Amino acid sequence: MLSAKLNYKLSVLVISLTLIAGVTNGQVKSAGNLQSELVHRIDSILQSQVDDSKIPGAVIEIKRGDSVIYKQAYGFAQKFNYQHRLLANPEKMTTKHMFDIASLTKVVGTTTSIMLLVDRGLIKVDDPVGKYVKAFTTPDKAAITIRHLLTHTAGLYEWYPLYYRASNKQETFKLIGELPLAFPVGAQRKYSDLGFTILGELVETVSGQSLDQFEEQNIFKPLGMTHTMYNPLQKSKDFKIASTSFGNPYEHRMVYDPELGFQFKEIKHDQWNGWRHYILKGEVNDGNAWYAEKGVAGAAGIFSTVDDIQKLVDMLRNKGKVGDVQFISANTINTFLTKDKFNNGLGWMMDPENSFMKNGPEGTFGHTGFTGTSICVVPSKDVSIILLINRQQMGLIDNKEYYNVNAIRAQVFKAVMAFCNAN
């Protein structure tokens, strides 16, 4: 009798454990097995890209709740020299390497700065930009609000080689103010580096500090982001930094090649020739940020590590809370992460048509960077994905573009969503 009761209890225990583990595709799979499958899938995606010489290297961090599900480095931080010859001893990538995060600067630095200023009651998102930036008081720009700049709906040019006509930030701000609008204010969304450059000016005007000083003192230091900064080589020569491009070949093409559609009649090719002719490592790839603004811009310029970026992401995932401290109010976080009529938030992208969050659940947000970086956060699954790829180290490919990493981002996101849905 005792044996029968014991067998019964063991059977109940086995059944209970089976139900907890879940059944997928007809097989019992524990949370551990599901996580192992995810790791294997991520490895196969990223390592195959490195092995096929599509990308030089990558770092990924996936976090769910309070647990880091997976963090790994792949390939090389630098693979080639300026002559595009394979280095005898390519520099191995590590999870400690800093990346030029490119347009992630817009959200990690500039958008977070605007959030803080809003939260402190110093500005409102629907304030006219001209209230703080004199150049935006002209008839064509007077209707532009901070919200328009954050949502890329201000009507500004998508891009302009500012360094042909400006050599410092004050000249840069003045030039953007003088440029005509490309389309009526609020009429459409056209991603614009120029808009975030002006947001950088706004932060400086309102705070009375330079953009890099404001962000260091109000974002990076308080969040413990010790390896996040502009112009890292000015701070130390000992940082591990992933290399990017061979000078600025693509940006040179943007100026010279009419096929790309960035031709401006007032720009004469011979009026400026300050192009870099070396591998960029610790210098921001973005030409406007480097040539015109000395490495510090609202649109680009920040270098960071995957762990540092995760700290900022965790703050956003926790509705602005860091430990017991309310770093930014939940109300402000909600304001910035509410979709507009173009399906995006303030600063942050929220359109599920984007490859790095393709068909993501409602509320998913993130951003990408031209160098190959991306952040994706899925609040409903309490998960985040930070993927840093130094794609430019491969150089321009046959189509005179950099290798498109959107398919990699989409595969990684799909694998993470499958894991979340099964677990």
Topology summary:
Layout: H1 2-21, E1 23-24, E2 27-28, H2 31-51, E3 57-64, E4 67-80, E5 86-92, E6 99-100, H3 105-119, H4 146-150, H5 169-178, H6 193-207, H7 211-220, E7 229-230, H8 249-256, H9 287-292, E8 302-304, H10 306-317, E9 321-322, E10 325-326, H11 330-336, E11 365-369, E12 373-378, E13 383-389, H12 406-422
Antiparallel strand pairs: 1-2, 3-4, 3-13, 4-5, 6-8, 7-8, 9-10, 11-12, 12-13
Helix pairs in contact: 2-12, 3-6, 3-7
Q: Any overview of this molecule?
A:
- By secondary structure, the protein is of the alpha+beta class.
- Helices cover 35% and strands 15% of the residues.
- It has helices spanning 2-21, 31-51, 105-119, 146-150, 169-178, 193-207, 211-220, 249-256, 287-292, 306-317, 330-336, 406-422; strands at 23-24, 27-28, 57-64, 67-80, 86-92, 99-100, 229-230, 302-304, 321-322, 325-326, 365-369, 373-378, 383-389.
- The strands form four sheets. Strands 5-4-3-13-12-11 form a six-stranded antiparallel beta sheet, with helices on both faces.
- The chain is globular, with a radius of gyration of 23 Å.
- The two termini are 39 Å apart.
- The model is unreliable at 1-28 (pLDDT under 50).
